[in-house]
Amino acid sequence: MKLVLLSGGSGKRLWPLSNDSRSKQFLKVLENENANLESMVQRVWGQLVKTGLENSSVVSTSKSQVDMILSQLNGEAGLIVEPSRRDTFPAIALAASYLYSVKSVSLEETIAVLPVDPYVEDKFFKRVQDLECVIQQSGADLALIGVNPTYPSSKYGYIVPEEEKVKSSDYSKVKLFIEKPGVEKAKELISQGSLWNCGVFAFKLDYLINILEAKGLPIYYEELLKQYDKLPKISFDYEVVEKTKNIVVIPYNGYWKDLGTWNTLTDEMGINQIGKGVISADSTNTHLINELDIPVTVLGMSNVIVAASPDGILVADKEASPRIKELVGEFDNRPMYEERRWGWYRILDQSKFEQGNEVLTKRICINAGKNLSYQFHNKRSETWTFIKGEGLVALNGKLRVVRPGDVLQINSGDHHALKAITELELIEVQSGQELIEEDIVRVIKDWNEVEELCYQLNMN
């Protein structure tokens, strides 16, 4: 059995902590068993390790999330990277072609697909493993997991099985799907034995490969990559599930929650405050999450979420907080904080002048042993001021050690790289006509190759 974890999302519902590069699954706000903060993706990966599924799992994601996943999972997860965001059908199709043509997975192998961020007990992943037997025993094209509802929610879709009561040891054929009904309809569905659709399903690899062939799409990974931008932006539910007749479902009777809004996320945080600040004693059921270096005080406010990050500040009633997605769509600012495979950076200031020149100031942290690639820029110069740690700079083929207080000028076209010997922090001031991440021409990523190049240049 192989697992495909879908990691997507644009990060609007948990603004301002989440953004286009840091979706909800990457927010480190959950306490683990050691009282350390971890993200949803770190929590789920830990559960996969506990159940022995990590070596059978790959993460399907977009280019903008690759560095974040590599950083948070320490490079342990295999990745399938979409060249552009196209919705869940193209993402799953790409994963299937990768497993088939790159990893040589048998067409008879069961493939399970699930979100990268469900908030569940460990036993949920044992239930995921049960899908393999269900596919074999039932002969179904698709097998789903349905969660036994605990209340009549209008936020979730419902799976209606043919049998009103499905035993946990059995599976049932799926009669129909109902998407996000009203509360009264949800009560009726629950009384009929319907289950919450948690977005987990399985199929034999040949089922999806046959669908790709029937649609005239490539089944080989490299070929599908080339045509990826031409694939329709459509969900797997609409493109495959709704057109599949032979579907079965197994029930899951345990804790499951989608932590997609501030009111649901804060229910599971375990602590009321992260970061600098004070919450007054008469502020009940109030949470403060502060990523800024200035204190935030919450006084006499109950049932409120206060979230502050370099991207903005949110003060909201928890019940009203899901509406934030409607409002932040108007914001078109670049992400002010990003995690990368080498560390993180935070934008401190961004200014544009009448003459067309721009200045961007970043605080950058590079983890010990990690490095920035050997690169150059065409449209900007940079000034680096080192404030913490010790590192090694490669500049136009020459190596030098840098420490706090050192200042380095990098002009447009200069080839440069940086490695942290210890955890290294610097202030970077960019200046130019167009300050964008795309103005990075990477020459070499591996530091050993950078040092070898410098050695050869100096020998000559």
TrEMBL record:
The molecular function terms of the Gene Ontology recorded here are:
isomerase activity; mannose-1-phosphate guanylyltransferase (GTP) activity
Asked if the record carries the keyword Isomerase, the reply is yes
Query: Which stretches make up the Mannose-6-phosphate isomerase type II C-terminal domain?
Result: 340-443
PANTHER family per the UniProt record, alphabetical: MANNOSE-1-PHOSPHATE GUANYLYLTRANSFERASE
What are the recorded Gene Ontology BP terms?
GDP-mannose biosynthetic process; polysaccharide metabolic process
Nucleotidyl transferase domain ranges (all copies): 4-267
Q: Which UniProt keywords apply?
A: Isomerase
Name-wise, this protein is Mannose-6-phosphate isomerase
Q: What is the protein's species of origin? A: Neobacillus bataviensis LMG 21833
